[in-house]
Design brief:
There is one protein chain. The chain is globular and about 45 Å long. The protein is mostly helical. It has four helices and no strands. Helix content is about 80%, strand content about 0%.
């Protein structure tokens, strides 16, 4: 079993805690950057939701969801 398999098992086994962590990280980013985020606050919410959706996805779907999250994160930084 490779490191990525172990990480995937850890994440999927604790998806509720990971989901809470995503919400907390999103909230902290909004608190820290506040008005500087502007329209990016909505994109941050979208990325957070996509990441949380990926937690419940199948292995094949998780790859697609991960790609979607990466794309959304890239758009948010533009």
């Amino acid at each position: 079993m490779g490191i990525f398999d172990k990480a995937k098992e850890a994440i999927m086994g604790n998806s509720d805690k990971v989901s809470e962590g995503l919400d907390k990280a999103s909230g902290m980013a909004k608190d820290k950057f506040g008005d500087k985020l502007g329209d990016h606050a909505d994109k941050l919410d979208m990325v957070t939701d996509k990441a949380k959706d990926a937690l419940g996805a199948t292995a094949e779907g998780a790859e697609d969801a991960a790609a979607d999250v990466a794309d959304a994160a890239e758009e948010a930084t533009e």
